[in-house]
Amino acid sequence: MTHDLSLRVNGTTRPVTVEPRVSLLDVLRDHLGLTGTKKGCDQGACGACTVLADGERVLSCLALAVQYEHREITTIEGVADPLQQAFVKHDGFQCGYCTPGQICSALGMLAEHRSGMPSAATEDVATTPQLTRAEIQERMSGNLCRCGAYNGIVSAIEETAR
Amino acid sequence: MTQTSIPTRTPQRVLGEPIDRVDGHVKTTGAAQYSGDHLYPDLAHAALVHATVPRARITHIDTTAADSLPGVHAVITHHNAPRLQPPPKPTLLNLPTLAAGTSVNYLNTDEVHWNGQPVAVVVADSLDIAREAAQRIRVTYEELPATVDFEQEEPNAVPQKNSALSDGGGKKGDAVAALKSADVSVDLRFSTPMQHHNAIEPHTTTAVWNGKALTVHDGTQHIDWTRRHLALRFKLPLNDVRVISTFVGGAFGGKTNVWAGTILAVVAAKVTGRPVKLALSREGVYRTTGGRTPSTQRVALGADADGQLTALIHTSVTQMGRVGGYAEQVVSQSRHLYDAENILVQQHQLTLDSIANGVMRAPGESIGSFALEAAMDELAHRLDLDPIELRMRNEPDRNPMDGKLFARRGLREAYARGAERFRWADRTPEPRSMRDGRWLVGTGVATAFHPAWVFPANVTMRLSADGDVLVRCGFHEMGMGAATAFTQVTAHALRVPLDSVRIEYGDSDLPIGPGAGGSAQTASVSRAILDAAAKLKKDLAALARRNNTSPDEAPATILSRAGRTHHEVAVGADRGIGRLAGQVRFMSTLLRERRKYVKAACGAQFCEVRVDSDTGEVRVTRWLGVFDIGTVVNAKTAASQLRGGIVMGIGAALGEETLVDGHTGRIVNANLAEYHVPVHADVPRIDIECLGDPDPTMPLGVLGAGEVGIVGVAGAIANAVHHATGLRVRDLPITLDKLL
Questions:
Q1: Residue B507 DSSP symbol
Q2: Gap between the Cα atoms of A153 and A147, Å rounded
Q3: CA B325/CA B532 separation, integer angstroms
Q4: Residue B584 banded pLDDT, cuts 50, 70, 90
Q5: Which residues of chain A make contact with B683, given a CB cutoff of 8 A?
């Protein structure tokens, strides 16, 4: 049993034929050849597979491709943002494997913050919180970096958000 | 002759500068290709079936429900797998024999040696089909008695014997008697749990057979070992095996050995005739690759009333698998850190029906330092002495165990710098005396120490007449910034601009590099690059003389004046008799130097924690590490590596614990939701300072930064937790239940 889909990825319409059980992550990587998005756990625990759907961050390993037919998907290959250069400047990565997920997650997170969304670190949820390091850390905690480049990632995001 | 006639680009200062990583662009745009990113046409996907019992014989495997699934190409078990050569017996005389993760000849035996051992592999058109087929396989076992419980087996641990590269024990004087007669003493028992590396990239292999030749994309820390191991197991001429490992998505020791996934990917590709990708599931990483051994340790310290140590006893028990493993040097730093009159160190191992334990970041020192440094803190408290002062009173001039010279030792300076920067003197010494609202505040210190190594490395260096330099060496990039560092070392050695240097690495087609382990890669490859540069400069000088050019001219100028397009030099011999001679030379130099010097990186870890007085939640709120890692090649990447070690140490201190079921030997939290690695919110700003003076006995003065960062971290945190709360937690991790 397969479905014919057309996915909008990085501004291009891409036809794919997949079983309904196939994750968005596997479609991106194995069907569309967009291997920039990484698989770290396939269980929604590490954030390495984070992509943007209509600008919102999504764990693509927990997303079924068939449910994303009418969404605008952005993967790291479709990102061109000063944040990437800031990651390099602040050494916000080492091995680089979690980096596409960190970058996509950060872009989605910044949009969430701009829309006034609070986090568990927000003191007063009635206000739009300042994007302090603590706020960034809390909001990025779904993206694991085993190399421990967290300081640099937060600095890169902090600088870009300014 | 002057240099004014020919304009040259002025070389900038390069050594030590915090330049951006040369692979920064590819790593931030998704272009960097890891071992699972090679999409060969017709690529098939493989999935493993893991044993669910710790020790058994397989009596039956029912694969019919898997075979019949559309899209399945092969179901491979011990009944139909191709015969492989067994893994070689590990011997120090032939280092690549250490590559085998375990002694099990996967799918060539009906024996099960640990809970999780692969017993079948399925190859299918897609990962989903392969996984479904794997779940449809039914394995029947005849279970055999198994020993799986570390705690229960502890009384049966046996003392470790000494070998050329690993000391199981040793003593100076009579520490037992000295402990008894000491003015002040502590005698403490510690434990540390099993831990897993959890690189975010699960071990992944893409295997492709081209006729009789094999190409393998494998995230590994040792390309040469992997290549030799595969050639041996699959009975191939070495030249028919190519291992490519351009980018490794984190490793931390976990990709040092060749584990089952690599072998079975190659088997799967052989059976199906298709390129096969075998990416371990996160669970598969826990089941089929070895983690860090659990340990129990005893540290007993005796001192006179002034705090001078009279007795230091440090013993350990760790685990090995019956199918292999590694005796971590848990007590090793107790030979080097404190000037005790009497010292006794002894390691013990017990053997379980488990997977072989592997090497994980600073094996031995990481967990050993927790016990030693926490015990020092307890002794300081007992003596009513500042913990830094206690360490300084016992800081030795020579190696305490045997009087060897320290090649370098910046510990006094590290503590002095650290105490000033951290404002250590601001603390009130009494436990539970510092508070900020509901938070109990405490600070702690601990010493970091990690031995420095150099391994053989082969490079070629090619200078082109247009000024470009190409260095080729099969080293590894797992996040340390290796290519960046060696670009700097080359530019420094040849006095050429950074952007004229290109480095090729991560491929067995290149001259053999050192393994990425023991914090040795930077020093090892730097030595070869310095040698190559010296050779190149000598050749150029000769060329200049022949062509009446000044040897002071830019290298490219000399070449072009001589009418040459390029000149290449090679350092090392990575084939045949030359390689063997090189290995023998390496071992003898190593042992000779080790007899004379203790070479090590060291440092002082300072931290502040806050403990919630109601819930016991621990937050690390400040960190400063001052390190002596010898020469710093790149201030930015070196600091990042040290930070990374500290972050992993925070995990070990507060959250990380692989839980093993005491009846079945099965890891019960084989995932990233229940194994708690540090997240963004757990990690404060980490300040790093490196003293920066070169080690006179090491290539370029480099001591290595990959491992020393994690050492002492758990100890510093445990000490800070005691300072905050008055509670001593001697069993890692320090979870909140232990503070209530």
A1: B
A2: 12
A3: 37
A4: confident
A5: 137, 148, 150-151
CB atoms within 10 A of CB A9: 23
Instruction: Enumerate the active-site residues of B.
Output: 707
The mean pLDDT value of chain B amounts to: 95
Asked if pLDDT for residue B10 goes beyond 70, the answer is: no
Q: Which residues of A touch B201 (CB under 8 A)?
A: 38, 40, 95, 97
Are the C-beta atoms of residues B702 and B634 closer than 8 Å to each other?
A: no
User: Scanning every residue of chain A, which has its alpha carbon at the shortest distance from the alpha carbon of B685?
Assistant: A151
Residue B575: pLDDT above 70? Answer: no
Q: Is A145 close to B200, i.e. CB distance below 8 A?
A: yes
Tokens, residue B90: 């590990």
- Flag the least confident range among A24-38, B54-68, B106-120, B164-178: B164-178
Q: At what angle do helices B521-546 and B482-494 cross, to 10 degrees?
A: 30
* Whole-angstrom Cα Rg for chain B: 27
Q: Residue type for B67, please?
A: D
Question: Rounded to a whole number, what is the largest CA-CA distance in chain B?
Answer: 85
Query: How remote is the C-alpha of B359 from its chain's centroid?
Result: 7
Topology alike, domains B24-33+455-593 and B44-145+201-249+255-288: no
Superfamily of segment(s) B44-145+201-249+255-288: Aldehyde oxidase/xanthine dehydrogenase, a/b hammerhead (3.90.1170.50)
B152-195+292-452+599-739, CATH topology level: Aldehyde Oxidoreductase; domain 4 (3.30.365)
Place of tokens 């590819």: B26
ipTM above 0.90, yes or no: yes
Asked whether the beta carbons of B19 and B498 are under 8 A apart, the reply is: yes
Q: What is the pLDDT of residues B475-491, one digit of tens each?
A: 999 999 999 999 999 99
B135 interface with A at CB cutoff 8 Å: no
Does the CB of B248 have a partner CB in chain A at under 8 Å? yes
Kindly report the number of other CB atoms within 10 A of residue B108's CB atom.
17
Residue with more model confidence, B493 or A129: B493
Q: Are B456 and B524 in contact (CB under 8 A)?
A: yes
pLDDT at B1: 33
Beta carbons of B186 and B375 less than 8 angstroms apart: yes
CATH class for domain B24-33+455-593?
Answer: alpha beta
B403: phi then psi, degrees, rounded to nearest 5: 75, 10
A residues 108..137 contacting B (CB < 8 A): 121, 133-134, 136-137
DSSP B333-377: GGGTS---SEEEEEEEEEEESSPPP---SSTTHHHHHHHHHHHHH
Task: Tell me if A148 and B648 make a contact (CB, 8 A cut-off).
Answer: yes
Q: Are B73 and B274 in contact (CB under 8 A)?
A: yes
Residues B254-280 have a mean pLDDT of: 98
Tokens for B446?
């601990």
Report CA-CA distances (Å) from B603 to B672, B691, B719: 31, 9, 16
Peptide bond into B387 cis (omega under 30): no
Q: Which domains are seen in chain A, by residue range?
A: 3-78 (3.10.20.30), 82-161 (1.10.150.120)
- Minimum distance, in Å, between the CA of residue B478 and any CA atom of chain A: 5
Cα–Cα distance list, B66 to B69, B381, B547 (Å):
5, 63, 73
Q: Are strands B204-210 and B276-279 parallel, antiparallel or unpaired?
A: antiparallel
In this predicted structure, what is the pLDDT of residue B12? Answer: 62
Whether B677 and A48 have beta carbons less than 8 Å apart is answered as: no
Residue A79 CA to residue B163 CA, distance in Å, equals 54
For chain A, helix (H) and strand (E) counts, in that order, are 5, 5
Q: Amino acid letter at A147?
A: C
Residue B573 is predicted with a pLDDT of 75
* Token code pair at residue A31: 């069907």
Q: Which of B413, B434, B433, B427 is nearest to B626 (CA)?
A: B413
